[in-house]
Specification:
With 363 residues, the protein is mainly β. The chain folds into 3 domains: 85 residues, Immunoglobulins (Immunoglobulin-like), CATH 2.60.40; 87 residues, Immunoglobulin-like (Sandwich); 87 residues, Immunoglobulin-like (Sandwich). It has a 4-stranded mixed β-sheet, with no helix packed on it. 26% of the residues are buried.
Length: 363
């Protein structure tokens, strides 16, 4: 400011201050700004503040004095600095939301006398890793449950760092059925086979949750196979592929699927022959009739074809009728009885027969 004791300089200063954004048009605003620039309040320091004992500029006053044109064009000098930022008010002061969700925060900036000014701020969230982030426009995005402090930071020449804060509390949303997993996911059956499927529900965070309404099962191709809509028991009917669907109720919106491939059942083939009795013991001269039963690859009974041909591995011990299975014991010893599907058959079953001497002939 000018050392000349003229009122004209004060007039320029007052005009310049009124021109500032948010400045008061009151005639006492000069005195208000005096506390910003430094020095005692008027009227003690109206004419020559530089020469007043103990006068000390604030940083804002120093910034004004550092502008070369502050003496000749105080208006431009003051406008170039802008009004000092004193307080920031963040709205809303508290916010409660669930994730994922958003909340827009706004910042109102004020000079030391409560006049609202247009000052830029930057936004930060104290817990970006777990609770949420905020962008340059003040839009907060919730990412997890917890509490975070939202801070708007501003400042300028001579103002220092000014902050305003708000609190955002984020809670987890109510658990909602989001996915259904069907087990097994794939199944291969032959016609006539069966498979029971199960369903498990999970919420939006992947945690298990009860399926409600209860699961309703369906098969996309009932010619391939049908499924009990309540129990999930599937019955394979014919060759083909069908999709099994588990849905939360008849009109539910959440579902899970599995795939079933059905192949035509193989023709039954003689696979094993069982001889009865499996073990027998006779005295010389005794007899035993054996019988044979055939079974297919699934263990179901099947006729033996060609017809059974019986044989004894040790004819000296005893002989067996090749057609009827009647064995006659001839001498003491052991023999294996074999039932085969035809003379050159490839499927057979066996029994063991032991022939003993009569008691009176034993030593």
């Amino acid at each position: 400011m000018n050392r000349k004791k003229i009122s004209l300089g004060l007039l320029f200063l007052a005009v310049a201050l009124v021109a500032l954004p948010g400045a008061s048009a009151s005639t006492t605003y000069y005195g208000d700004l005096q506390s910003i620039y430094g020095g005692p309040a008027p009227p003690t320091c109206v004419a020559d503040c530089h020469s007043y004992p103990g006068f000390v500029f604030t940083p804002y006053g120093n910034a004004f004095a550092a502008i070369q044109t502050h003496r000749t064009d105080p208006t431009s000098a003051l406008i170039s600095i802008g009004p000092p930022l004193a307080t920031i008010t963040v709205t809303p002061a508290t916010a409660s939301l669930t994730f994922p969700g958003t909340q827009l925060f706004t910042a109102a900036t004020f000079d030391p006398f409560g006049n609202q000014i247009n000052a830029a701020v930057t936004w930060t969230s104290s817990n970006t890793a777990a609770v949420g982030t905020i962008d340059s426009a003040g839009l907060f995005t919730a990412t997890g449950a917890g509490t975070t402090t939202i801070t708007a930071t501003g400042g300028g020449t001579g103002s220092g760092i000014i902050t305003g804060t708000a609190t955002a509390t984020v809670s987890a949303p109510a658990a909602v059925l989001t996915t259904i997993t069907v087990t097994p996911a794939t199944a291969s059956l032959t016609a006539g086979g069966s498979q029971t499927f199960t369903a498990a529900g999970f919420d939006q965070s992947g945690a298990p949750i009860a399926i409600s309404p209860a699961v309703v099962w369906s098969s996309s191709d009932i010619a391939v196979g049908t499924i009990d809509e309540t129990t999930g028991a599937f019955n394979a009917l014919a060759a083909g592929t069908t999709t099994i669907t588990a849905k939360n109720g008849t009109s539910g919106t959440v579902s899970g699927t599995a795939t079933v491939t059905v192949t035509a059942a193989s023709l039954p083939v003689l696979t094993t022959i069982t001889v009865t009795p499996a073990r027998a013991s006779l005295a010389i001269g005794g007899s035993q009739t054996f019988s044979a039963a055939g079974f297919d690859q699934s263990g179901a009974p099947i006729a033996i074809s060609p017809a059974v041909v019986w044989s004894s591995s040790n004819p000296a011990v005893g002989t067996i009728d090749a057609t009827t299975g009647l064995f006659n014991a001839l001498a003491a010893g052991r023999t294996t009885i074999t039932a085969k599907n035809g003379t050159s058959g490839t499927v057979s079953g066996t029994a063991t027969l032991t022939v003993k001497r009569p008691r009176h002939q034993r030593k």
